[in-house]
Amino acid sequence: MVFLRFQSANVSKASVFYALLRLTARNHYIANSTYIAENDTVIREISLIKGQQLVIPVNLNGYISTSLFFTYGIPIKLIKCSVNMNTSFTLTRRPGYINGIDGVSTDRTAGLGISLNSNISQNIDFSISSNSNYSIPVSTFQDNLGNNYFYQRTNLRLKYIFWKGLVFNTQFNHTYYRGLAEGYNQNYALWNVSLGKKLFRNRRGEIAFSVNDALNQNKNINR
Question: Counting C-beta atoms within 10 Å of the first and last residue's C-beta, which end of the chain has fewer, N or C?
Fold first, then answer.
């Protein structure tokens, strides 16, 4: 594994630049050997009916993963906030077997992001961020496994401490997928909200009433 990191700060502008490079290569990588039964059969003394899959771990060479990440941050004095912009690129190459045929799955992903973070006071804390990624998967096993897809996640977070230590918290997340197989593209919002009260000396404790997924839209998908 090779890992490089660079960071630079400009004191007069209160800006920061950050870069990261990571490269990983593995021999004897723990990959999957997948058997898909085209008919009723027995594999390694295991009975399979047509359509069933048997996945067995195997050690294969040729795994490579690399990533690049850059971010730049600068304050905006007018609104007492800071803005951070980032870009990234990752490439992952995974070997494997399907029905005794060796192959490689490669995933390339490019990303862009921006965030706005408050620095107003100890009683008000908020952030707004959005990150978008475009992935290009390629497989030597089957051409139809290489569907490009787009993923975006937007987050809004607010914490406000007001009258006699009351605390209002809310977080809103929006998730968007496009380019997946039919029925798997998602576009949903997740909203959590809570109201609490600071307790004990120096307000070191807090009790709160919270509602998670107030819009009842929570979903999960892995690609």
Answer: N
pLDDT tens readout for residues 137-187: 888 876 655 678 899 999 999 999 988 889 999 999 999 988 877 777 788
> Alpha-carbon distance 90 to 68, whole Å?
6
Say how far residue 23 (Cα) sits from the centre of its chain. 19
Q: What angle do CA 31, 35, 40 make, to 5 degrees?
A: 165
Q: Provide the Cα torsion 46, 52, 53, 54; round to 10°.
A: -10
Token couple for 95: 């070997």
Q: Quote the CA–CA distance of 143 and 137 in Å, as a whole number.
A: 10
The pTM of this model reads 0.75
